[in-house]
Amino acid sequence: MLRRLFNLLAGGWLALGAAPRLAPAQSFAPPPVPATAPSGPSSPSAVRGIQDVNDPFQSPAMPGGAAGAPTATFVAPSQATMAATEPLGPPIVPTDARPIAGSEIIGRVEDQVILASDVLWQVQRMITSMEKQKNMKVSDEQRPEIERILLERMLLQLIDTKLLFADFRRTMPPENLKQIEKTLAEPFEASEIPKLLETYGVKDRVQLNAVLVQHGSSLKDVQRQYTEKMVAGEWLRQRMPKLKTVTHEEMLAYYQDHLKEYEYPGSIKWEELMVRFDRVGGDRNAAWKALAEMGNEVWAVVAINPSLRGPVFANVAKAKSHGFTAAEGGIQESTPGSLLCEDLNQALDTLELGRMSNCIESPQGFHLVRVLERKEPGRTPFTEAQAKIRELLENEQKEVLVAQELKELRKTARVWTIFHGDLNGPRLSELLDEKQRR
Length: 438
Description:
The protein has 12 helices and 10 strands. It is an alpha+beta fold. Among the domains are: 105-239; 266-376, Chitinase A, domain 3, CATH 3.10.50. α1 (2-15) packs antiparallel against α4 and α11 (382-411) runs antiparallel to α12. The two termini are 33 Å apart.
């Protein structure tokens, strides 16, 4: 949708260049020379703003000139009234004023200013996500340094987006940009708003905006950044040359050079019922009895339906088994000989498909297993791999073209950040490329 709109608007804009030129404007003769005023001491210059050489004291700004100006009146300091020293009102800036959160300028890209609030809301979201994943709380002592590191990282990620957006604005008329903003409003509401509501744990836009305001941002600012990001991405794709067609020979050559990547080991898919010794107080007899009961339940199901194929342990495993995949029905997949218990490895290698094993003991407990499928080791044939190889080679082309376009944009870029100062073309590219490699 955005690409079609780009093409439509860009096409209309380019069409303006083919419009017929206007006829040249009619030429005009220079204005007549003003009549010369009589000269003399009493005649001021006829042209306002030019001093009369015959009367240097005659000011063009005042009819009376300097000589006709009223005499200045001076008042001695001791005679000055108290009103002159009294404050006229409260100070313009309160003495207890504090900077607005997020209002600090942390970067400039061309004519665009980046405020701390443009990235602080994302920094806070990353910290919150990290705390949830690691089930820990960032201390007050650590938080400033973590915020600084993330702030710098997010700022550097914004630079290329800002450069592309600035390049787009130089090409597209402002009224077309407004149309694009309207077009992107719908996907922003459909895709981004639900994510933000979930991230911040709020119910509606009002609560969401309140949370963002706490970080010095707003929903309007977030939508603006979304628009800039989408426009920058589409503009980059339009700047890039068309991809070259990946040939059959290129795909085959890649396949031959990476044969090991397409080899796969043998695998066994199986299901398990298990009773752990530590779950029955170490009582082996109790463990044996519990496993026998589970086995009998499975036999009853198979006896009713002898033609049953596929997994049959699922219901019993979910209800009673102690295996680590019991919640998923006891299904497991492993490579031959990969288990720590040799008796289990031997059973999985030798059992007929669909046949249930006898009771097998391991250091952890008793097991019943049943093999569902075996795959011998082999290699994915080229005919199956070529679609992914084509995609991989096309992505490699894109990465090269993207790097070239961004390098070209950065050559003449005017960039400054609070962390690095002024960044010229080579230094800017080096810094951004290094961050991407990390």
